[in-house]
Every structure is written in structure tokens, then in C-alpha cells.
Amino acid sequence: MKITQISVFLENRKGRLFDVCSLLGDNEINIRALTIAETESFGVLRIVVDKSDVAVKLLKDNGFVANLTHVVAVEVGDKPGGLASVLKVFADNDVNIEYMYGFVEKFSDKALLVFRFADTDLAQQILAKNSIKVVTEKEIEGL
Amino acid sequence: MIWKEQVECADPADLKNLQSDYLRKLTAYIYNNCPVYKKKIDDAGVKPEDVKSIDDIKKLPFTTKVDMRDHYPYGLFSTGQSEVREIHVSSGTTGNPTLVGYTKDDVKLWSDVMARTMCCAGAEPGDTIQIAYGYGLFTGGLGFHYGAMEMGLRIIPTSAGQTARQLKIMQEFKPRIIACTPSYALYMAEEARDIGIDPAKGNWKIGIFGAEPWSNSIRREIEEIWNMLATDVYGLSEIIGPGVAQECPHKDGLHIFSDVFYPEIINPDTGEDVADGEDGELVITTLTKQAIPLIRYRTRDIVSINYEKCRCGRTSPRISKIKGRTDDMIVVRGINVFPSQIEHVLVGIEGTQPYYQIVVDRKAHKLDEVEVLVEVEEKIFSDEIKELKELQDKIRKEIGAVLSIGVKVTLVEPKTIERSMGKSKRIVDKRTL
Amino acid sequence: MDIPYWNKEIETADRATIEKIQLERLGKMLSSALRSPFYKRLLGEAGISSGDDIKSLDDLHRIPFTTKDDLRKSFPTGMMSVDMEQVVRIHSSSGTTGIPTVIYFSSQDVKNWTDLVARCIVSTGATSKDVFQNMMTYGLFTGGLGLHYGAEAVGMTIIPIGGGNTKRQIKVMKDFHTTVLHITPSYLLHIHSKLGDVGISRDELAIKKAFVGAEPHSENTRLKIQELLNIDAYNSYGLSELNGPGVAFECVYKKDMHVWEDAYIVEIIDPKTGEVLEDGQEGEVVLTNLIRHATPILRYRTRDLAFLHPGKCECGRTHRRLSRILGRTDDMLIINGVNVFPSQIEEILMQIPEVGTNYQIYVNKKGSLDRLIVKVEIYPKMFLGEASQLDALKNKIKEELRSSIVINAVIELHEPGALPISEGKAQRVVDQRPKM
Fold first, then answer.
1. Which residues in chain C touch residue B158, judged by CB atoms under 8 angstroms apart?
2. Is residue C426 pLDDT above 70, yes or no?
3. Which chain A residue shows the shortest CA-CA distance from C393?
4. How many angstroms separate the Cα of B173 from the Cα of each of B167, C32, C107, C133, C328?
5. Per-residue confidence at B96, pLDDT binned at 50, 70, 90?
6. Terminal alpha carbon distance of chain B
7. Which of A32-41, B217-226, C286-295 has the lowest mean pLDDT?
8. What distance in Å separates the CA atoms of residue B175 and residue B203, rounded to the nearest whole number?
9. Residue C96 — pLDDT band, cuts 50, 70, 90?
10. Between vectors from CA C401 to CA C396 and to CA C402, what angle results, nearest 5°?
11. Domain identity same for A138 and A75
């Protein structure tokens, strides 16, 4: 149920993002979702790709510091209030969200969002209990 | 005004006799009271009786910073701790700091050489001095304080920092003399302009600047901006603190008080004296200290020396401004910093030995800034920004605690720090001093 | 018990002798005060134009009170009573709105102060054999240099370390066999909590006594300190307006602090009416300095609340004991030993444009130390959507506070509307600390 996200450490330097993306692109790796968290002095690039293991090795071999994190890809109704209703379920059940971001494209009539939870196991329980669909790693690879 | 004319303008022959007398007494004293020195002197194959004149100083062994570290805390002392009236501490290379102590007479000596220093810079009885060197374990603040007390000057002990207040005090009390680091003087000028004060109309007329190396071009800048006489003071806590040497208004070298601090200029590799006027490492012997006198202490500062009588009338020899170091120590905001201290901290955190680089810079008229670049490797990388920031903070705090100055810590990507032959270049000093 | 004295004769003089000295010195002090513009006017208005006009201590009430505001308004030389030529030291304390209050000392004034501090040190049983780690700030603040001068006179080994850098403080304590500390009570507790982190145990330290001051604290806190650290803690009271440390100090019996009545006239008044209260009654401490002539201070309202003990101390000293400080009559905060007025903090914040009109200041405890938290609502017009801008703002506020009032504050950024609205002149500074 958990999917893999790759986190990459980047300085706030011109072109670093381009370097990552072109490296992945040159090696036939597709980025499905991405976001950058930045501070004054550095950033953490978070990406969900179609071939995580290949991607992370590729990045490391090319001198990037990268690691893997477990996140959850949640389907959300693609209409006004769709996200809000999912978030209400989390709020009502004390599920804390560390961060979230969207997939690059839609793959069905639903929107797909990446969530990093403080307690992933609890989140998954609550999602299951509330019949909120979660997309698996295999399904992502196939998208 | 010359504070101790008899000694400061002494005939070279008389001075030599005095120094010889002191050295004989010192050698016997230190030999009989400090087991560590006794061993050093024995190992050099010398007996106290062999030291008859100041020229025999060459027979005695050198003392280094390593000796001070190895025998921390009281190993190099010649008195018991109960006779030590005051203690000061300065940076050590790694681990232990350097400890120095003063008996009551040592404090008197310090007061005396500081009074000589202030008079040499041009201070006169009745003057007001603003002491903006840090007060505390650093010898700057209290050294100037004792000297000013000795001279009977009016003291405003501002210590360092709180610039707005420093400037307000300058305006209200019109101190003729300012004592602080040269970079702080330039920094205060900038702040002055920001709050609408014209430094050229400031009240400071004489500056006694030191604790960090500074060039003649910085001097010209300070003098122009502040419309004051900017003089250089030299000292180091191992010897006494400030008060080892001072420029007179002719600004043609710093008069070293050689009756009590005997100078030699040596080739740092061979230990032999350099030829007249040549650059070499300054070695100092404290001829009259009681608590922790040092014989032939290698300062690691590179200078040249001039024995000619100065136009001011003083016959004490003059050392040049500091031209460099024989080691990798740098001075940041008046504080001695050894790269190894920073390395020690980095290794202590997370057990890692990351590649790091220390970049020191000073933007025009701002204070020195130290940035420590630390390469992020997998072991310390976390997806959580919070954790990365905490790591950054932890490193910053620990280095700050060791160095006593604030530093900036920047996490950088791997392999971005220059490596030369496997050993990375540890310090990049971008300042023009 | 063998009671140590610095000056036994004066410390155990009978009341009649003390009062005679007080009256004599008061006369001389009035003469000095009349040489300052401020007191010339103030005393003139009260019908006092010479030192002889006060013929007995009962007439003290004829002298009007002096307040902090008076000091501030007299800056710089309104209260100076000698020519600048005779001034050898200039000290200062914090002011209400950043204008410092200035105190001048002649060389005799410094000698008198030194002697008084030496008296304080010796009354605790400390001697020239002690190693003294002076952890109070050195500089314009009188705390550090005051004890330094006194310790010099007693002949102690002094480590003039000043404040901060806990790791180093502990290491120095161990390496140099410190036996006596001068420190705030909260910092002392903080040191205790950090021993483990530094890897040094209490057994490796030789500390025996601590002179604690600059922060009001309860008897329970003192007992806690003594128990945790296995030392004797002596309460110290002073304020720069009246020299600095050395106004009152505990003796070996530690039953509150002897005020040196040959050097100060102490009164306790009702802060609302100004009426002088009896020994045992709690009120505002008012002090008259009898030994500093460059800046005379008469009947100074300290805004500290305390009472005077009616009974005698076992040590045999005839100088009355002042209780520990029980509170303030104003809103001054003491944060880790540093005096700061909420108005100072507010003034600093108002000068930063990105800080909107709504902010809140909290003081609470982090472990043993005080912590200042400034909560600021983000001013919507100034928000550019970048984390770096927010970081920079936080750092700017932090730096301004640090360089003006020497306090490291924690800055929190909040959404507009998140903080309680300050209605009118509502309290914007909330002290959440439990009484120590």
C-alpha cells in the first residue's frame, strides 16, 4: 500500500533541479509526481518515479545524496470539496500530515495525491476504514 | 608622554645589563619551581649557572603551544595555585584551551605595560577611554582596564557589541581614545552612517587597535573615515595579553617592551636567528613574570625587527606589523581560530568525518563572517527538512561554543568541496586584511 | 561558629553608632547632591539648601523620592555632582526605553564600593584561598566588575569568565577547581542539568559556595539549589543605581541579607502612599547611598518589594536584614538575570516593518532557564510566498532583539488573526513562569 518516494538533497544553486531531471530523463525514467521543500539555504526534492530502484541508484552514482521514503498515493474526488472531504477524515481521526503534493497527471477520473504521514500505519488503517482508495506501487509502475 | 622613560629610553648597554640580570634570576626561579621546565632545561644539557648574560638565552630550550596544551592546566606554572590572583584562557588547537595565570605582581606588571602602551599611543592623564574589547576570559578588556586604572584614565567599560550604545556613548562622553578591533572600528563607522552620525566628526581621536592582523591600507581607511590616529597594539595571552608591543604616533613599527618581554626573531625551520631586518618567527621570553613565565615562547607570528632608536625617543626595538603565521591559525573578530577545532566538533557529531571547508569573508565594513560548509552524505541525510535544519543548528551551536563566535553552517552537496591530493583545502580566507 | 568579618567594628557597631554615622554621611551626601542640577532643584523645592538642613534621621522624609524616570531624564549629567575630571568610571544599567541610565564613580567611590563588596564576600566565609568563578556579565553592567573588585581586595583567585557557554563554564569549574560562583539561580540550576551532557559529575567539581543574585527567587529555590548541587547558596542584592552588587548580602547563617547601614539608609514604604512602614511590613525598598559622591542618589524607589527583619541575626551583626525580593511594583521583567521592560521589546518590534500591529510576547521556562518567545503575525502585504523570506524575517527579529537587549528570543510566525487581539492598552507581555 505504501509507495516509494525518492528524496534528493539540493543546494539552492542554479541548474541543480535541471541536472536531476535531465539525468532521469536521459535514462528513461519518468517522473510521476514532484515537489520541492526549500529553506533559506537548501532544498529537498521529492519525487515519485516509475522505476524507483533504478532511479535512486542512478542518482547516487552521479553524486547526488538521495534516500527513499514511504508515502501513500491517495485517490481524491476531482471536484471542488474532493480534497477537503479526505482531509476532514484525517483531521477527525488525528492523522497528521507532514506534507502532500499532486501527481503530474490524472490517471482516471480521480485526482491522485501523494501524502507523507507522521504515522503511515495509522493513516492506512483510517483510509481503509473510510473506503478511500490508495494506489499501489505496482499500479504506479503501470500507469 | 613616555610612561617609564628610564626603561623605555634606556641606553642599549644598560638595557642589556637589566635583561641579563632578569634572565639569570628567571632561569634559577623557573628551574627551581617548575618541574616541567626543569626537565626541559636538563634535557637541553644546561644548568642555571650557565646562563650569565642575555646572550646565553640561546642555550635555553624553546616553549611551544603544544607544551602549553600538554601541560594543561597548571604544569607550566612556577607558583602554586593559591598565589594565582587571576586566570585567563584563550583558544587551544584542539581539546584543551590555553591557560594563563597572574600573581598580584604579574597584574602589576600587566598594568604597567598597558600604561606604557596607552601613553605610547598618545593617551594623556585626564583622558577618557572607551574599552570596546571583550571583557572576560579574553585578555583584551581587562588588560586595557588595568592599564587605564594605572594611568588614572576615565574608563567607560563598554566591552564589545551593542553598537548603537557604543556610538551613543561616544557622542555623550566624548572619549578621546577607543580601544577595539580594527574591523569593529570599520563596522561601527557603517552603523554610524546608518543612524545619521558622521564618523569624521566623531570624538575618538586615538584608536588602539589589535587582536587581529590588519594592514596599512585598513589603517588609512580607519583614519580617513574616523578622522583619528589609528595605532597598532600587539599581544598574546601566553605572554601577558595586550601590552607586549605598541606603535607610537610615528607608526613606524611597534615598540616591544623588551626589558620584560625579550624578543628574538628566528627561522621557524632551523631555530636560528635570522639576519638583521629579515622576516622570521617572533620568539618571546617573559623575563619577570611569576605565575607562568615562559622561556623562548614561539608565537608563530612572522615579523621583522628594527633596533634603531625611534624618533619618539624610545630605544625599545620595534617589530613590524604581523606579516603572517607559521601555522594555519586565523583570527576572526579578534578571536584565534584553529581549523582543527572545527574538525574536532564535526567528528564529534554523528561520528562522521564529513568533508568541510571554512570560508572566512568580510564584506566592506562589516564584521568577519565564518561559513562552515559541510558536505551532506547519506549517513546524515534525512527527508525531513526539520531534521536537516536541526543538524545544521547543532553543528552551528557546537562550533559556536568552542570558538565563542557565531558561525553560519551551510549544508552542501557531496563532492562540491575542493579536494587536493586527497586532503581538502580547509580554509578559504577571502578577506583582504 | 567562628564568624568571619571584613570590618568587625563597623559590622557589629551598636545602633546608636550606626545612626550617628548615617546622619553624618547623609549631611555630606546632601552637600554633594546639591552640586548636581537635579538635586539642587529637587531639594530646593523641598526647602533643603544645605547639608545642615537635615538635623536628624527623623527628617529624612523631607527629602523627596527619586525615581528611575528621574535618572532617565537626567541623562547624561543631571545627577553628576563632581567635575568630569574626578570621574574615573562610568557604568550604566538598562533603561525603560533604551536610554541608559548612567552612574559616575570617582576613585574614592570605587574604593568604597570595593570595600563594601569585600565585606559581602567575607561575610559568607569565603577567603583568599578560594577560587572564584565570576559568571556575571562584565562591562557597563556593574555585576561582573563589582564582584571582581571585591574579590581582588579579598585576594581570591579570580576567573573572570562572564556568562554563557555552559560547556566551557563546567569544564573551567572542573579544571581550575573553582570553589565559589557568582551566578543567577536559574543559570545555576541549568548548569546542574547540563552536567550529564558534558560528562562531568558533581564529584569532580570542587564548588562550595554560590553567590546568587540578579533574579528574585524563593527560599524553596535556594534549598533546591543547595540540595541538588551540595553547595551553600548566598543571596545577593544590589542595583547599579546604588553602586551595583554589595548593597545587601547574606552571612553564614543565610537568614536573609544584611543591608550595610553605614553605607545605605534603607526604608520600606507603601508604594501607593509613600508612607514609611515598620520593620516586618512588606513594601517598596527605598535606598539612600551614603558612600558614592560622584552620583549621589537619595531615597531611590527601587520598585522592589520586600520587608526588613525586626530581630537580630545570630552572627552578631547589627545591620538589619532585608528579606528576599518578593516582587516588583512595575512591569519590569528579569530574563535570565537581565532586566528588560516590555516597552523596550515593543519598541524594537515596532521598528521592523514586516511585523504588523499584532504580536504577543511570552516569557516562560525551558528547563531551568527563562525563555522569551515573540509571536508575530505575518503582515499579509509583506508575504511573498517564500520560505526563505520567512526565515530571514525570523532571523532579523531575533538579531534586533539580541543586539539591543542582549536576549536570545524564540521567534514564532503566525497567520494573521491567530493571536489574541490586544484591546486598547491590553497586556502584550505575558509572563507564564511559575514563581521561582
1. 139-140
2. no
3. A40
4. 10, 21, 18, 32, 32
5. confident
6. 31
7. A32-41
8. 6
9. very low
10. 95
11. yes
d(CA C421, CA B88): 51
- In this predicted structure, what is the pLDDT of residue A123? 93
Per CB-CB distance under 8 Å, the chain B contacts of A60 are: 378
Q: How many domains does chain A have?
A: 2
C86 touches chain B (CB under 8 A): no
Distance separating alpha carbons of residues B349 and B395, to the nearest angstrom: 7
Could you give the residue range(s) of every CATH 3.30.300.30 domain in chain C?
A: 335-431
Average pLDDT over residues C196-218: 93
Judge: B136–C158 Cβ closer than 8 Å, yes or no. no
Residue B156: pLDDT band by 50, 70, 90 thresholds? very high
Tell me the chain A residues in contact with residue B414 when contact means C-beta distances shorter than 8 Å. Answer: 63-65
Query: Nearest-CA distance from C414 to chain A in Å?
Result: 17
β-pairing, B369-375 vs B408-412, is parallel
Comparing alpha-carbon positions, the chain B residue that sits nearest to C405 is B162
pLDDT at B424 over 60: no
Which whole number is the average pLDDT over B228-232?
A: 98
Both A96 and A42 in a single domain? no
Cross-chain residue pair C145–B157, CB shorter than 8 Å: yes
What would the mean pLDDT of B279-285 be, rounded to a whole number? Answer: 98
pLDDT tier for residue B349 given thresholds of 50, 70 and 90: confident
Choose the final residue of a domain: A19, A41, A69. A69
Chain A hits for C386, CB-CB cut-off 8 Å, are 38
- Chains touching B by CB (3 or more pairs below 8 Å): A, C
A36 and A80 both lie in a single domain: no
B55 reaches A (C-beta below 8 A):
no
CATH topology of domain C335-431: GMP Synthetase; Chain A, domain 3 (3.30.300)
Closest CA to B159 of C7, C137, C322: C137
Residue C149 to residue C96: CA distance in whole angstroms: 28
Count chain A–chain C contacts defined by CB atoms under 8 A: 11
Is residue A100 within 8 Å of A115, Cβ to Cβ?
Answer: yes
User: Which pLDDT value is given to residue C95?
Assistant: 47
Residue owning grid cell 548541587: C229
At residue B294 the predicted structure's pLDDT band, cuts being 50, 70 and 90, is very high
Boundary (domain end) residue, out of A38, A69, A100: A69
Q: What CATH number should be reported for the domain holding residue A17?
A: 3.30.2130.10
Q: What structural domains and CATH numbers belong to chain B? A: 1-327 (3.40.50.12780), 335-429 (3.30.300.30)
Query: What is the domain extent for residue A133?
Result: 71-142
For A108-139, give the DSSP string. Answer: SSEEEEEEEESSHHHHHHHHHHTT--EE-HHH
Q: Which residues in B40-52 are b (16+ Cβ under 10 Å) and which e?
A: bbeeeebebeebe
Say if CB B30 and CB B77 are below 8 A apart.
no
pLDDT digit of tens for each residue in chain A (143 aa)?
789 999 998 887 788 889 999 999 999 999 999 999 888 778 899 999 988 999 999 998 998 888 888 999 999 988 899 899 999 999 999 999 999 999 887 778 888 999 999 899 999 999 999 999 998 888 877 76
Cβ-based neighbour number of residue B118 at 10 Å: 29
Q: Please indicate if any CB of chain A lies within 8 Å of the CB of B413.
A: yes
ipTM, interface predicted TM-score of the complex? 0.91
Where in chain C do CATH 3.40.50.12780 domains reside? 8-330
CATH of C8-330, one of 3.40.50.12780, 2.40.30.30, 2.60.40.1920, 1.10.3720.10: 3.40.50.12780
Stretch C149-166: mean pLDDT, rounded? 95
The percent of chain B in helix, strand and coil, each rounded to the nearest 5, is 35, 25, 40
pLDDT bucket at B352, cuts 50 / 70 / 90: low
